[in-house]
Please model this.
Amino acid sequence: MAEKFDPAPDDKHADSPDAARAADREAHARLEAGLVGSFPASDPVSAAQPAPSKPDGHIDNETLWEKLRAVFR
Model:
């Protein structure tokens, strides 16, 4: 009889399922602690940090030519 086909063989580079569950539990515990520590609040707790904002520039003082050149830099 032919060998049974396995469409998804084990990934030798992947974390073990136990390690993945432990990481999920740790992330959930940190989010839960952040939620408890910030209650009552209007903003939800986030696991990711927001991207840094762009610094304010002197855009109002730039000429049209300078703004056009800035697009192609």
Summary: The two ends are 65 Å apart (CA to CA). Residues 25 and 53 are 31 Å apart (CA to CA).
